[in-house]
DNA sequence: GTAGGGTTAG
């Protein structure tokens, strides 16, 4: 027997296998989107595609593989689809983010005289979350078909109205319900929390016979979001039962309020209390470490996730990438990034921002290309990173190309940050007029960052004329920022215009503006963070630091670095 | 006989 006959006999064999397998088993065993086609073929062959029970199962399977097209076409072949078939497909459209199509199918269902069930409306309310009028029509139908007292449907309606910010409507639904369960109460409390109305949220929560954990959690989250950490803390202490969401909400809340140390300490307390954290907790903690720049703790937390078998999901993944790159460990960030089993937009943004921050502009640009190849659509944040990197590296053409592709290929509208990047890119490259033109083309008012970038470019390229224009604007926007004065003073001094120097100095004095307070950097040694400023001699720890610094300067000089002393006045 | 549906942490 040659190879060809072996294959064809195998084929025959597998076909008959398919035919003999009970159809339900065949559908349930579909482990890939392709197998759905053979399952359907088998059903059509035996006319089982007319069976509503099987079709319901089949459509559900299609939905899980995102093959809603196949589900629809197979349903169209049916002579008498029943409510189960319609419901499966309506739900399928919602799951596949095609809400309008689910509504169209609903209309067809009514035309076919198939009576909707409560399941139909659960899906439909979800489908109408995007539009007020649609949702209201669905609500009307819910009344018309007698589901106005159905607890679960009414609860979804509360979600619907509160999502549109129509809290009074949501409350009306709540009040009109003849019976409510725990979910209903929590949903309504959560609606008030989302509306930042903690008084109403509290009042309602206190009317519950016993607050459930979800409600407590909801309130904690609300107070944290409003910056009321103390109340959140007291709720946390008061509540009788805490779950993982409670602990994670506290960690998240502290981070939200920039109290990262407390966030990390809650994490340790949680583990000491024997509560096992999950992926959400871990990514939150890692991100707190990133904000603090505490790489040692970050590593410890990273180790913890590895040792305890956490799934390296996109949240933990992007948090780790961000943490390592913010802590200066770009290599580790890259290592984590390339080993991620799944990467979403956030992971890509984290690594691109990391590369950009470390000055690897070309690599950041390459990453953008790679991400496009992997069909992840970049967003506005991605472009800010790439453009910033291009600016720092002076990659004018590349930056411009990326900027153009942002609007033409991705229809992303430039925000003020993108303009800021481009103005800086042009200014730094000496294309001062292009920068000015871009500023004038903006559809919103340029801010101080933009004029500041232009001013800085003018200093670099000695364009006093436009520097004065930028300075004038900056005097309106940020008249008390001493940096701009210093910049202009140094430019006048460079051209020996001492009278102008004196004039600007006089203005500074007149306004009582102090000299620029120096920017600071910090470094983590062991588990302590040390803060440095320019020309800082306060580190009495040892002279070694300064000796090392001298050596660094020397190496830099050897590498061809010329210190820019101009402009220091 | 079918569906697992509404609340809280990214």
UniProtKB/TrEMBL annotation:
Keyword Repeat: yes
Protein name as catalogued: (rape) hypothetical protein
Pfam families: E_motif (PF20431), PPR (PF01535), PPR_1 (PF12854), PPR_2 (PF13041)
Organism whose genome encodes this protein: Brassica napus
Matches recorded under PANTHER family: PENTATRICOPEPTIDE REPEAT-CONTAINING PROTEIN, TETRATRICOPEPTIDE-LIKE HELICAL DOMAIN SUPERFAMILY
NCBIfam families: PPR (TIGR00756)
PPR repeat copies, ranges: 82-116, 212-242, 243-277, 344-378
Keyword list, A-Z: Repeat
GO biological process: RNA modification
GO terms assigned for molecular function: RNA binding
């Amino acid at each position: 027997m040659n190879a060809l006959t072996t294959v064809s006999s195998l084929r025959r064999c597998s076909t008959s296998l398919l035919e003999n397998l009970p159809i339900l088993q065949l559908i349930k065993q579909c482990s890939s989107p392709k197998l759905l086609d053979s399952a359907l073929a088998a059903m059509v062959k035996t006319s089982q595609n007319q069976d509503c029970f099987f079709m319901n199962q089949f459509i559900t399977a299609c939905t899980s593989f995102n093959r809603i097209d196949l589900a629809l076409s197979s349903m169209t072949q049916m002579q008498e689809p029943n409510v189960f078939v319609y419901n499966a497909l309506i739900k399928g459209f919602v799951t596949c983010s095609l809400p309008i199509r689910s509504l169209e199918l609903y209309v067809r269902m009514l035309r076919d005289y198939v009576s909707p069930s409560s399941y139909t409306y659960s899906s439909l309310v979800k489908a109408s979350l995007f539009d007020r009028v649609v949702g209201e029509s669905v609500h009307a139908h819910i009344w018309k078909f007698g589901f106005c007292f159905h607890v679960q449907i009414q609860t979804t309606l509360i979600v619907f109205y509160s999502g549109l910010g129509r809290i009074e409507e949501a409350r009306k639904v709540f009040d009109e319900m003849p019976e409510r369960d725990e979910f209903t109460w929590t949903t309504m409390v959560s609606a008030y929390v989302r509306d930042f109305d903690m008084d109403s949220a509290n009042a309602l929560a206190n009317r519950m016979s016993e607050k459930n954990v979800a409600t407590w959690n909801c309130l904690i989250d609300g107070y944290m979001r409003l910056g009321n950490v103390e109340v959140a803390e007291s709720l946390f202490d008061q509540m009788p039962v805490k779950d993982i969401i409670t602990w994670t909400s506290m960690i998240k809340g502290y981070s939200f309020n920039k109290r990262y140390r407390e966030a990390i300490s809650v994490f340790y307390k949680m583990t000491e209390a024997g509560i096992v954290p999950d992926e959400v907790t871990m990514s939150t903690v890692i991100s707190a470490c990133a904000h603090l720049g505490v790489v040692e703790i970050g590593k410890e937390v990273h180790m913890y996730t590895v040792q305890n078998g956490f799934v390296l999901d996109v949240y933990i993944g992007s948090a780790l990438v961000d943490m390592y790159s913010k802590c200066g460990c770009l290599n580790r960030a890259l290592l984590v990034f390339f080993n991620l089993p799944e990467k979403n937009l956030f992971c890509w943004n984290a690594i691109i921002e990391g590369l950009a921050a470390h000055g690897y502009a070309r690599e950041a640009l390459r990453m953008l290309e790679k991400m496009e190849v992997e069909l992840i659509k970049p967003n506005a944040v991605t472009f800010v990173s790439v453009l910033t990197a291009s600016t720092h590296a002076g990659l004018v053409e590349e930056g411009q190309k990326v900027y153009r592709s942002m609007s033409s290929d991705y229809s992303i509208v430039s925000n003020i940050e993108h303009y800021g990047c481009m103005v800086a890119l042009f200014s730094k490259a000496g294309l001062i007029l292009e920068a000015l033109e871009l500023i004038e083309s903006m559809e919103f008012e340029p801010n101080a960052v933009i004029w500041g970038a232009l001013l800085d470019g003018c200093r670099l390229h000695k364009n006093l004329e436009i520097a004065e224009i930028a300075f004038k604007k900056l005097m309106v926007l940020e008249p008390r920022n001493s940096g701009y004065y210093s910049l202009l003073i140094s430019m006048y001094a460079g051209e020996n215009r001492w009278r102008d120097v004196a004039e600007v100095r006089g203005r500074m004095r007149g306004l009582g503006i102090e000299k620029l307070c120096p920017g600071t950097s910090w470094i983590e040694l062991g588990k302590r963070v040390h803060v440095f400023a320019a020309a800082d001699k306060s580190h009495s720890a040892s002279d070694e630091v300064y000796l090392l610094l001298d050596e660094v300067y020397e190496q830099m000089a050897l590498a061809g670095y010329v210190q820019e002393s101009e402009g220091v006045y």
